[in-house]
Design brief:
Blueprint lengths: L2 H8 L12 H13 L6 E5 L6 E9 L5 E9 L6 E7 L10 H8 L3 E5 L35 H16 L5 E11 L1 H12 L3 E7 L6 H6 L8 H10 L6 H8 L14 E7 L7 H8 L6 E6 L10 H10 L6
Parallel strand pairs: 4-5, 4-6, 6-7, 7-8, 8-9
Antiparallel strand pairs: 1-2, 2-3, 3-5
Helix pairs in contact: 2-4, 4-5
């Protein structure tokens, strides 16, 4: 598909249009919960075998008592404040190799990469919920309402992390950026939406958007297959369909998009069958500030060349605060 054809199809698409009436109140109240917590954390030195950077395991206690882990990589001279990038990983994964972040540290950046609770890293997820916990984190907690959704907790973890990071003496809170792909791309949007001080957002084919439409678009072949799983075993006749989606609307990033104030650089594979381009346009079209979509027509939900180089050019080639 050519980018011009994608724009013709979805360039004005604004998603499902089911934003809950109390959505903004819901997230404002969530932020207040985090803001009432002490900005406490633990830093444990981690050997990363570098001549240019130091590594730390950063731990903090989430609003619900779970212990959240992040990698923290900082340039060798820790007496300065540095531009800082938050990084978030894909679904099921973890924050990856420490060595992946040393390149940015060598250029004078701090990097903070969070392990999403209950996935491939060491962050905890001990929260109890009703209903099934198999087959996916989108549906975890859905039977208990918006407050108990798994991703509500993760989104609040992200906000909590930014508040803590701004207390670190090596972090320049006026020069913050964020990067992620898939689930990480969604969390990059969430990070900037809940923390307007984030100035640059680099997101690749973000997940967690436009659930109602994602369900209609070959859901069994996509990252949203757990939606069909829930109906198959919990609601075979779809009697609860509206109430099900009305809960998930609270963690749909399309409704957080208008809060983003930083500049957004969005990579999209037009052959993506995992996070359909239409669901991505639902979010992109609701961004209110500066934004740029970089399309890769022959690529799907996979490694995409050039995007990392593009990000490096934007970060290193100019000052973030200009």
């Amino acid at each position: 598909m050519y980018f011009k054809d994608a724009q013709a199809l979805w360039g004005k698409y604004l998603g499902s249009g089911k934003k809950p009436k109390d959505f903004d109140e819901f997230w404002n109240n969530g932020k207040k919960i985090i803001e009432a917590l002490p900005k406490t954390f633990d830093l444990v030195p981690h050997e990363i075998f570098s001549h240019v950077a130091k590594g730390y395991d950063l731990f903090f206690t989430a609003h619900d008592g779970n212990r959240i882990h992040c990698q923290f990589i900082v340039p060798m001279d820790e007496k300065k404040k540095y531009p800082t990038q938050f990084q978030f990983h894909g679904y099921h994964g973890n924050s990856g190799d420490w060595s992946d972040k040393i390149g940015l540290a060598a250029e004078g950046y701090c990097v903070i990469a969070m392990d999403v609770r209950g996935q491939g890293g060491i962050s905890e997820d001990s929260r109890k919920v009703s209903g099934g916990t198999l087959k996916g984190h989108i549906i975890r907690g859905v039977d208990d309402g918006p407050d108990e959704l798994f991703y509500r907790q993760v989104f609040l973890d992200v906000y909590h992390l930014v508040r803590i990071a701004c207390c670190l003496p090596q972090v320049d809170e006026n020069q913050l950026s964020v990067y992620g792909a898939s689930q990480g791309g969604a969390l990059a949007i969430v990070c900037a939406a809940l923390s307007p001080s984030v100035k640059q957002i680099f997101t690749l084919y973000p997940f967690l958007s436009d659930y109602r439409e994602a369900f209609r678009l070959e859901v069994a072949q996509s990252a949203y297959e757990e939606l069909a799983y829930w109906f198959r075993f919990r609601d075979p006749s779809h009697a609860k369909e509206e109430s099900f989606f009305s809960v998930l609307d609270y963690i749909d990033i399309q409704y957080l998009a208008e809060r983003v104030q930083g500049e957004v650089f969005w990579g999209i594979g037009l052959a993506d069958t995992i996070c359909h381009p239409k669901t991505q346009f639902a979010v992109f079209n609701q961004l209110q500030g500066a934004k740029e979509m970089i399309a890769f027509p022959e690529y799907g939900h996979e490694y995409i060349p050039l995007f990392s180089d593009f990000m490096r050019k934007k970060l290193i080639g100019g000052k973030m605060n200009e």
